[in-house]
Amino acid sequence: MPTTLPLDVCIRQQPYPPGLDRLRAMKNVRVTCVDVGPDEECPWHLPSDIEQSVQVILSCYLPANFKSAKNLRLIQIPSAGYSQLGGHNLPAHNVRACNAAGVFDPPIAEWNISMMINLARDIRGMIRNQESGIWDRPAKFQREIAGSVVGFWGYGGLARETTRLCKSMGMTVHVLARSGVKSREATYVVPGRGDPEGKLPDKVFSPAEKDAFLNSLDFLVIAMPLTGQTQGLIGEAELRALPRHAFLLNPARGPIVQEQALLRALREGWIAGAALDTHYYYPMPADHPLWRFPNVIMTPHISGSTATQTYDQRVWDIFLINMQRFADGEPLLNELTAKQLNEA
Predict the structure, then answer these.
(1) Are 153 and 257 in contact (CB under 8 A)?
(2) What's the chain's average pLDDT?
């Protein structure tokens, strides 16, 4: 059913004039902007003059007074993760929520490819040699990733875009997915990217085939969200099931992999190395042992970043599409289910 007009919208997002201009050009839309300030995590409040009328919010965080916003029906967050919405019981307040899944898929996919090349060719080892003035040309510095088997545990947006790049580079793609690989509807995809129809993997494994999936890999990429069911999902048994020459990449969430099991795997050589962009602590303590492994690449959660040059345009693309769909009573992109919100 179409939404009652005029539509009151509150924006608490860093300025992006092209998007704001398009929003203001929409018919029967009233826009109020709230300054984000230096820290978007700081508590904020809806202005009193729109508190009762606001229907849509673009913000990473709910306002502290959202329960008094009786007409609020939709919050669009500019992040793929949505744990900040947990504990607010949004479905009970008749508030729908959409995330920014898809915005970060291209940069995360590029991170995945770069980490595979860096790990396969031991770029860290070459840089250490460079800093010491050592001329050394072993085979490990010359390995190609073409012909390798990469496995994605989960097949959401970041896995689909990485798969597209992997296939173009001559890699074989295996996927472990709880419900198989399907086409994706009502999900934001950057035009021309990803695998929206789910046709690119060479082989798809079910959870019952987990060991066969892990045994087959040269690279394992964690590509699932962090939930109560996935926290600690990958432990000693899973890491031991990987070939000793395999590398682990985690651009998803650190705690999906058990911390102590990962440390043992690296110390005892169950796996060949790892690239980690998501972590167990924020920031990672300077004395944490993961910093010191010569075969581990640590990046500070920047694989998919709000600082990329495409972030604002893509977030506003999702938001404006959803604004029109919301006004017309059509299905929204990236809408989170009640189950997802209640488990966040």
Answers:
(1) no
(2) 95
